[in-house]
Design a protein that fits this description.
The chain is an all-alpha fold. It is built from 15 helices and no strands. α2 runs antiparallel to α3, α3 runs antiparallel to α5 and α8 packs antiparallel against α9.
Length: about 325
């Protein structure tokens, strides 16, 4: 009986792909940091933390729900090709997966919108609605269609935008005009391109052939825009942070390619690329440090200075902590 219980628990964990959750947290947190330094007000400490944890919980539930629904929609395909998956193996019923996945997405959507700071729930609701719609479209129709990687990339790109606007990133501020706007939008665009590239490679995990070489080389170019935007007019950033983030990312991809030869290594390469999302988030923090340093130069002892000092530490601790946590969790919960 105990063995059966733990088998059920593990089956649900496999459905969630929970080892990827730290990368989701890092993506949202990266946008949250940018929104924090670009807002025109600085909420009191407890309210700010409650909002952040609510956002993290919300997007976690949306992610987990989407992953469970992915297997529920793929039940017939998995029965024919991957009979060891929890649903075709009889450990979880497709009906239960649909119910749990749907409820998780509903609850996650509510948490995310409710956790956004006052006055910003409207745009957060819109972004969450787009995220849920994109997840459902991908889950239902991703098999055998060429546009599926683009939809999956859109899901990732929305995460930093949700964090940005939920904490108070200003639509009508100076950062939404001209080159600063281009610099800010480069971050979600890079996440979209990275997800697109990973999904192209992942399609060969359970099928014939090997990923196209151009998709492999594209990965090395993915984070470059986060460095280039630092040199745009009126963009205040710390270039060395973006460069270091890119270097860590390139080194990780290179080591992954060395360790996992194709075609047998497709699955492990995909897992390594998913783990690399937080390294891109750190590169994007180059856009954060300049504004945070400016805030930190304010009146000593003020709330603004205190939060800026803490945020500057979190800007590197969260991405690298998420990266390490992902590597630890994937030992027990499969990434794909």
């Amino acid at each position: 009986m105990i063995a059966g219980f733990f088998a059920k628990v593990r089956a649900w964990l496999v459905l969630t792909r929970g080892s990827n959750l730290p990368t989701v947290w890092s993506n949202l947190f990266g946008g949250w940091l940018l929104g924090y330094v670009y807002t025109d007000r600085f909420p009191w400490a407890i309210g700010l933390l409650v909002s952040l944890f609510g956002l993290l919980l919300g997007v976690s539930l949306i992610y987990v729900g989407g992953m469970i629904l992915n297997d529920a929609f793929d039940a017939r395909w998995d029965t024919e090709r991957r009979s060891t998956r929890p649903i075709p193996a009889g450990l979880v019923s497709a009906r239960a997966a649909f119910i749990v996945g749907g409820l998780a997405m509903l609850l996650g959507s509510w948490c995310t919108v409710a956790a956004s700071l006052g006055g910003h729930r409207g745009i957060t609701f819109l972004l969450v609605a787009l995220l849920v719609a994109a997840v459902l479209v991908y889950d239902r129709w991703h098999k055998g269609v060429s546009w599926a990687p683009a939809v999956m990339g859109f899901c990732r790109a929305l995460l930093p935008l949700i964090g940005f606007f939920a904490v108070g990133g200003l639509i009508d501020g100076p950062h939404f005009r001209g080159w600063p706007l281009v610099a800010l939008l480069a971050y979600p665009c890079v996440l979209w391109l990275l997800t697109f590239s990973i999904t192209l490679v992942a399609r060969h995990e359970a099928g014939p052939g090997t990923p196209p070489k151009w998709a492999e080389w594209l990965l090395y170019l993915v984070p470059v825009p986060l460095v280039l935007v630092q040199f745009l007019p009126e963009v205040n950033g710390v270039t060395k942070v973006a460069v270091w983030g890119c270097l860590f990312f390139w080194l990780w991809i290179w080591l992954s390619n060395r360790r996992h030869a194709l075609p047998a290594g497709v699955g492990r390469r995909v897992a390594d690329r998913l783990a690399a999302f937080p390294l891109v988030d750190y590169a994007a923090a180059g856009l954060f440090y300049y504004s945070a340093a400016f805030m930190r130069s304010g009146v000593e002892g003020s709330v603004e200075v205190g939060w800026a000092a803490m945020a500057m530490q979190l800007a590197w601790m969260v991405p690298f902590g998420s990266f390490i946590l992902t590597l630890i969790l994937r030992r027990w919960i499969p990434t794909t």
